[in-house]
Amino acid sequence: MPARANEHRSPVPRHPHARLLAAGAFALAAVLAAGAWWWCTIPASLQAAPGEELHAVGAARDGSASEAPGAAGMNAGGASAGCPPGPDGNLPAYPYAGEGYARVEETGFVSTAARPLSTFSADVDTASYANLRRMVRDGAWPADIPAGAVRTEELLNYFDYRYAPPEGDDLFGISAEMADCPWNPDTKLLVMGFATAPAEPAPETGSNLVFLVDVSGSMADPDKLPLLQEAFATLVQGLGENDRVSLVTYSGEERVVLEGASGADRQRILRAVGSLRAEGSTNGEAGLRTAYDVAERNFVEGGANRIVMASDGDLNVGMTSEDELHDFVDERRGQGVYLSVLGFGTENYQDAKMEVLADHGDGSYHYIDCAEEARRVLGRNLLANFTPLADDVKLQVEFNPVQVKGYRLIGYENRALADEDFLDDTADAGEVGAGHAFTVAYEVVPVDSPFEVAVPHLKYGRSDGDAAGAGDAEAGASGGDGGGGLAICTDGSEWLTCSVRYRPAGEDVTQSQARVVGRADQTDEPSSDWRLAAAVAECAMVLRHSPHAGTATLQSARDLVDAAGSEECAEFARLLETLALRSREPAASSYADGGRLNR
């Protein structure tokens, strides 16, 4: 620390200039010595990090990297900007202590003999990947990343895959590919893709979009309200004269800034958004009530009616808990108005609250960490994110015990449903937009695998894990329609049947379709899509410290990715390279273990 001038002065200094020069020289020497000591504490690999490690993911593409190259990039040497000093001025504070993430218990292996059905809700959210990218860009080590921030299904769904489109009257095209699991030699990895037809604009009906914007004091940071205001320039380009746009703000009070404006009146919309300023407390409850009222007043029959909430989730007035938010949204949904959520910011970001709002508001959840992500969500994928296609989309996979000893659903932990909910049309499930696709992955244990799957003792049923004999085949199978207990199938070509049940948007009648997965879907040379999904799963397991990670590492995940596949793949490859580099550093312990001294 630089020396301060002595507050007690000699009344008659004999050589003031000499004393000042000596004091200055001493202070300079102290600073140089401290700087040299600090530099020596940095590992050599970080002092000489290659140019590729300084790439600013996300920020580089929106031009912000040039303003703060050391802080914005995914680099190991310049990561301290995102980690302010602790209260004692020495060790850096844990940067995510003020952020809120829900604890999620990872799903383990399930015995097919005990439970052949796996039932869950569809999910098209992508927030977790963009949030992870933000953390890595700001300098997080793998051990720093909160496990609750890593939701595997949202990482999987961030990327575009070459899935087969739907055929005939089907709403979903279902692709399946199974190959040897990269992290466990005794299991298979099954990747299934569910794709819808590309979205088409509907100018004859238009949309009713109500933007609910948090303008409380916590939104003043550059990566919050200012980033949202910049993003609107992209959004308005996709709107037309039949679209209605409203703007509701909330802080200490709620305010209707704009109501029912034509989407073609772009300048009026942008002026209204540009006038917003952040100040005050955060009364999300009042804002939500007003937004629903505005949406219902401007309801468009046959069109897309949606509230889009933009916030950091730091609600501190009115409803503040996840349970209260859940109950409120449950009460207001069902009238044809969807609620989607855009998350912004860092340090005090409340992910758990934002996810609850989107999940129970029948909408999607995205995190905006840079201008490029805003263009992706509000520009390129505008129709898919805001135009509903199917409601209450549920999946049920029935495994054939003749071929499968056990299985493990990778991700979707907070989307699990009871098996009986599959046929219950009153049970709430996920919404899928026009042009959306989502990915599901299972780790599958073949019946002849040495891998052991615990089988609970069943007093009245079979608990030995053996499949029923061929003579029992007359009992039939449930046909993948979600009901009726253990299917008896001796056909070795069938491993499982995946059923999808949904209600087309705006309709009351439920529809379903099914896809059998078997021998024909196995391959020794998996596609680049399969390899990307496997890499995402490996990355998530490592960051979540999964007990099922096997041989998975961040480097082995990187080796699976074809960086030339797309811009998103190249970015993910750089993210994995950065995390792998940081995980190899000897001083890369967690903040809880004593801070990041090598920063």
Report on the structure:
α9 (322-332) links the parallel β8 (304-311) and β9 (338-343). It is built from 15 helices and 16 strands. It is α+β, with helices and mostly antiparallel strands and 599 residues long. Mean pLDDT is 80; it is low at 1-73, 75-92, 467-487 and 594-599. The protein has two domains: 110-199 and 390-453 and 492-583, no CATH class; 208-386, Rossmann fold. The two termini are 18 Å apart. The strands form three sheets. The protein has a six-stranded mixed beta sheet, with helices on both faces. A five-stranded antiparallel beta sheet has the order 1-12-14-4-3. The longest helix has 25 residues, at 16-40. It is globular and about 65 Å long.
Structural class, from helix and strand content? alpha+beta
Give the % helix.
25-40%
- Ends distance: 18 Å
Strand segment tally? 16
Major sheet: 6 strands, mixed
Q: Report the principal-axis shape.
A: globular
- Strand fraction band? 15-25%
Question: Which residues sit in consecutive blocks of at least 5 with pLDDT less than 50?
Answer: 1-73, 75-92, 467-487, 594-599
The gyration radius over C-alpha positions equals 27 Å
- The overall pLDDT, averaged over residues, is 80
| Number of alpha- plus pi-helical segments | 15
The oligomeric status of these chains comes to single chain
Strand line-up of the largest beta sheet: 7-6-5-8-9-10
Pfam families: VWA (PF00092), vWF_A (PF12450), YfbK_C (PF12034)
Protein name: DUF3520 domain-containing protein
Keywords: Membrane, Transmembrane, Transmembrane helix
InterPro entries: CLCR, Uncharacterised_YfbK_N, VWF_A, vWFA_dom_sf, YfbK_C
